[in-house]
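Reopening this one. Same input as before:
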Amino acid sequence: MSNLSSTLESIRPIDSRLIKEARRRLDSLTKPLGSLGRLEEFAERIVAITGEIRPRITRKMVFVFAADHGVSEEGVSAFPKEVTAQMVYNFLRGGAGINVLARHAGAEVKVIDVGVDHDFGAGGHTAEGLISRKVVMGSRNMRKGPAMTEEEALKCIDVGIELATEYAGGGVVFATGEMGIANTTPSSAVIAAFSGLPVREVTGKGTGIDDRAFEHKVRVIEESLEVNRPDPKDPLDVLSKVGGPEIAAICGLVVGAASRRVPVVIDGFISTAGALVATELEPGIKDYIFAAHVSVERGHRVMLDRMGLRPFVDLDLRLGEGTGAAIGMTLIEAGVKIYNEMATFDEAGVSEKK
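Same output, byte for byte:
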């Protein structure tokens, strides 16, 4: 039996009184009111999310969920499906973009196989450090039918919930990342299903496909939606029919984080697709989410606007893996340090503005 329903029921709204209390401290610091802009907002929100009036960030964790997608056989990506498993090995060796930026941020990287079409125990390669929670050997081709059954989608969600529960507590901040060749295709399908917008308006070039391949990708998504007819009022129906295993696991991590009052920083298009499903299940979850950046994928801004989330930065990123989220964690940490470590006017003996 899935943990989703009980976890959703355990989520409580953040306490707006704590935001006001945090604002009083911020306004007492040796600076003009609001002069540190969004860094102050980040601190306020961390106070409200954690329930700690003097919070500390003691641990930062990036969860990179990996899975394959049956729709990759339609030629919607510039890379073959085998790259998913190859990149998982790269993550484990510490050689990927997310490893570099996580080291820069002082964050741990957890790599989770939730649906890679590869046996990591074979072939002589080392998979030391891999968290194996495989639910499926890749999703099915959504152009021909549902990508997953609802039971499979729920099992993938449970993977995220269980990891959130396992690592919650002690001043931790979570970040989401992913790896899965062709996963911008289901992500575009997810936002098209929820928003009702034309597929072309929410679809980008992913790994860098050319114009001809882009037109083909749009047709594949349109046909997938026509074949499956996902119900936008039923988030699980959308997720199972046109989503993917790692999107579902990210949804679960976000749901689980909110239930345990853990801040979660989302990365780009695919991570945001998972977070979007979570907020469609329970709108209040958005208060626990920080949007690190807006990517060049056309549907990403649409997703963020639907959730009412304002991204920190626009750096023209489109790598995924959690790279933007790792950068975002450093900005949140900066805000919390300002809140905790900056002197008040009284402590510094500085005269306040009359």
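So the earlier flakiness isn't reproducible anymore. For the record, The longest strand covers residues 59-67.
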